[in-house]
TrEMBL record:
Pfam families: DEAD, HA2_C, Helicase_C, OB_NTP_bind. Gene3D superfamilies: 1.20.120.1080, P-loop containing nucleotide triphosphate hydrolases. Residues 79-89 have a biased composition (Basic and acidic residues). This is RNA helicase. It comes from Caenorhabditis brenneri. GO terms for cellular component: nucleolus. Keywords: ATP-binding, Helicase, Hydrolase, Nucleotide-binding.
Length: 785
């Protein structure tokens, strides 16, 4: 039997979630529930958008219909209002068919939920529609994306469509890159940026409309943002400039969102640009595949597709992380040696967040003649990204997810099955510019067992940083926070205990269930880092090592600066380079040494470049030599160039904040004790004592938890008596990551204070749970924060 015969075909992509709501059409003025009332309760106090013609019931188009030539020309007329739009002739999209209806709904509702297949035109067209509807007259249109790559690429695309440059009418704002100006009317942003904007200006007065795109991703920031925006809407409804909210997704449990937004209007944009055929592989019965090794199966499947699909159809593969991706890229390159002479060359192109931007751009470049590009990606290419030429998607069905166990403050990193919503998004990447195919490396039966939606991040992360931000906004009792999926009471309490122990908040004397920011907490909020890292910076000021703390904390915000085994280096070389930076004090000081070495290198390089410029070298060759020198330095020292760049941008940001806060830039020189003391004081909850008998470390705040120092740490062999770590990660064992040697006297008083607080806190928390249980039916009516 050939592999092809063993691939079981399914009909077009169908999925339980969408089927359920596909019965709704725009011609029905009601919500997807059975109600037939024409209006949702939130009557619009909104200024009337410039609707070209309001559809009467008889003209309203059911969304299930496809675009007819007449509707096309009608829509083109509307589109011509757009300045310079004619310069860009984009293909017809399903959303064009319902444009007038959407305009009408925008006019009548404060909140809209738009659900449409991937590629139907939501992310690119809805913001433009808002501009055409006149909504940008009273403020800009903010569009939030879960990932920076999506925000950047959508802004470029829409700028082209609107015949403007990025930074003109259309711009983007992601961390460290703000391409917006006073002219910008459509701002694509990451949800984290919008959240920070809301912290600075809680009513978001600069925006008339906020569009939450890819809401199904359920990122922590978008869930919190929805909660803030609801409050913001309430406040702005009282004034003259109400806030419009649009929630968009391809797959969403619409009823859940609808009831969250007070029975908001749901609009379904039906139809997709191009069909996608989905195939399921059943590795359990197909002998060509392994029953458990999805990485191996990926290579087999790429080979199958390469030998059977037409030339020129590029492939997009979804895997879970950089190591897997690089391994598959290597194996695919090797495969070229065994292909028939008539076959094209396989061109593997890795794509993951840690890659240098130039490397990431490879995925978007035109495939050379005689080659087939195989982009091997993590879920960064899952949503809102169009990679031209991709006609086949191979979905491993797996994703790496970090889950926080709040009771023990442990991060658990595990490979999970994707949700049905994710699988659908992945398949959708194949039909962006032509009909496509998706090969799923799991059986249809297994697919049916996948969760419908992604597990919301808010249910699986440490909540302390978010609560601190919300308290800055005036929230007093997180238990009253009105979120779509409220976290467990224990998780909320764990975050409150953490913040109280770190000195960032304190319970109010009048009501112990309410909390207020302390002065120290107020300072923590200035820094866009976790509360314990902010506390390190705070204490560094007292110790006199602010410069060093900023450098270390900045480096800690990125993934590992050391890139690990590099392409051409053997084990001995790798070991030699590691040793060069290693210190007795631990990984944080090692990190500092690395950053200081790169600072020296850049000083030298800048001097050399300036001198070369004075001697009249051209800018082009100066730039080339500059970049080459950086690349060589990073490669020689096994430094991840992209992470280094991110760390130095964060360093600049933190320095800027310190300047604004009038914090003196003290330095401790070679007296690393000061910086170790700051690290220990800031992160004292992560202090451990060595248990010689067990040959493991015990967490000082909870000695029942035992762990090992991760082998990547420079202290993994010396095993000092007391350490503090940055992160606790559970993989095949429980490991402390980034470890520093400490003096127990620095943390002992803090830990005993924490234990006392915990005892009180546990008692209060038990009482709270009891109260909640007793008053369960009444709770719904409780006033929300
Ligand atoms: O948001 P949704 O998935 O509904 O669609 P979209 O992102 O607005 O994309 C609509 C169409 O625009 C896609 O089918 C692509 O052909 C095109 N597009 C593109 O070429 N480049 C982008 N960066 C985004 C979209």
């Amino acid at each position: 039997q050939t592999e092809k015969e063993l691939l079981t075909s399914t009909v077009q992509m169908t999925n339980g979630v969408l089927k359920k709501i596909q019965t709704i059409s725009l011609s029905e003025p009601s919500s997807p529930s059975t109600s037939s009332k024409p209006e949702s309760p939130q009557k619009s106090p909104l200024p009337r958008p410039k609707t070209p013609t309001e559809p009467s019931p008889s003209t309203s188009t059911p969304v299930t219909s496809v675009a007819s030539p007449s509707s096309t020309s009608q829509n083109r007329n509307i589109l011509r209002h757009e300045p310079n739009f004619d310069k860009f002739d984009r293909p017809q999209l399903p959303i064009d068919v319902v444009e007038q209806q959407l305009m009408y709904e925008l006019a009548s509702h404060e909140t809209l939920i738009i659900i449409g297949e991937t590629g139907s035109g939501k992310s690119t067209q809805v913001p433009q529609l808002c501009v055409r509807a006149g909504l940008a007259d009273s403020g800009s249109i903010a569009v939030t994306e879960p990932r920076r790559v999506a925000a950047v690429s959508l802004a470029s695309r829409v700028a082209v469509e609107m015949g403007t440059d990025v930074g003109g009418i259309v711009g983007f704002h992601v961390r460290f890159e703000n391409a917006t100006t006073h002219k910008t009317k459509i701002e694509y942003m990451t949800d984290g940026i919008v959240l920070r904007k809301a912290l600075i200006s809680p009513l978001l007065e600069n925006y008339s409309t906020v569009i939450i795109d890819e809401a199904h991703e359920r990122s922590l920031h978008s869930d919190v943002l929805m909660c803030i925006l609801k409050k913001c809407q309430e406040q702005r409804r009282k004034g003259k400039n109400p806030l419009r909210l649009i929630v968009m997704s391809a797959t969403l449990q619409a009823d859940k969102f609808q009831s969250y937004f007070d029975n908001a209007k749901v609009v379904l944009v039906s139809g997709r640009t191009f069909p996608i055929e989905v195939f399921h592989v059943n590795p359990k019965i197909n002998k060509s595949f392994s029953s458990s090794d999805y990485v191996y199966n990926t290579v087999i499947c790429v080979k199958h597709v390469h030998l059977n699909e037409p030339k020129g159809h590029d492939i997009l593969v979804f895997l879970t992380g950089s190591e897997e991706i690089e391994a598959v890229a290597y194996q695919l390159a090797e495969l070229n040696g065994s292909l028939p002479a008539s076959a094209d060359v396989i061109m593997p192109v890795p794509l993951y967040a840690a890659l240098r931007p130039e490397k990431q751009k490879e995925a978007f470049k035109k495939t050379p003649q005689g080659a087939r590009k195989v982009i091997i990606s993590t879920n960064i290419a899952e949503t809102s990204v169009t990679i031209p030429g991709v006609r086949v998607v191979i979905d491993s069905g797996k994703v790496k997810i970090k889950t926080f166990e709040a009771s023990n403050r442990i991060d658990v990193l595990k490979v999970h099955n994707v949700s049905k919503a994710q699988a659908k998004q992945r398949a959708g990447r194949a039909g962006r510019d032509a009909p496509g195919k998706c090969y799923r490396l799991y059986s249809r039966e297994d697919f049916q067992k996948f969760e419908i939606d992604n597990m919301p991040e808010i249910l699986r992360c440490n909540l302390s940083a978010t609560f601190l931000e919300l308290m800055k906004l005036g929230m007093k009792n997180p238990h009253r926070l009105q979120l779509i999926d409220p976290p467990k009471t224990e998780n909320i309490d764990a975050a409150l205990l953490e913040l109280t122990s770190l000195g960032a908040i304190r319970p109010l004397n009048s009501d112990k269930s309410k909390f207020a920011l302390t002065d120290m907490g107020d300072v923590f909020c200035m820094y866009p880092v976790s509360p314990d890292h902010a506390r390190v910076l705070f204490h560094a000021q007292k110790e006199g090592c602010v410069m060093e703390a900023i450098k270390i904390i900045s480096a800690m915000q990125t993934d590992a600066l050391f890139s690990g085994g590099s392409d051409s280096k053997n084990d001995a070389e790798v070991e030699r380079i590691r040793r060069k930076f290693e210190t007795r004090e631990g990984d944080h000081i090692t990190l500092l040494k690395l950053v200081l070495t790169t600072n020296l290198f850049f000083d030298e390089l800048n001097k050399k470049t300036e001198a070369d410029a004075r001697y009249g070298k051209s800018n082009i060759s100066l730039e080339r030599e500059y970049n080459l020198a950086i690349r060589k330095f990073c490669n020689d020292n096994m430094i991840n160039e992209q992470h280094l760049k991110t760390a130095s941008m964060i360093e600049e940001q933190l320095k800027q904040i310190a300047i604004e806060q009038e914090v003196p830039f003290s330095t401790c020189g070679n007296d690393f004790t000061k910086i170790r003391k700051s690290l220990a004081t800031g992160m004292f909850l992560n202090s451990c004592e060595y248990d010689r008998q067990e040959d493991r470390y015990r967490l000082m705040i909870n000695p029942a938890i035992t762990l090992k120092i991760h082998p990547s740490s420079c202290l993994s062999r010396s095993k000092p008596a007391y350490i503090v770590f940055s992160e606790l990660m559970k993989t095949n064992d429980l490991y402390a990551l980034q470890v520093t040697l400490i003096d127990v006297d620095w943390v002992r008083p803090l830990i005993s204070e924490h234990k006392k607080m915990r005892t009180n806190h546990l008692a209060e928390s038990a009482q709270r749970i009891q109260e909640i249980t007793n008053s369960a039916p009444k709770r719904k009516k409780a006033k929300t924060e």
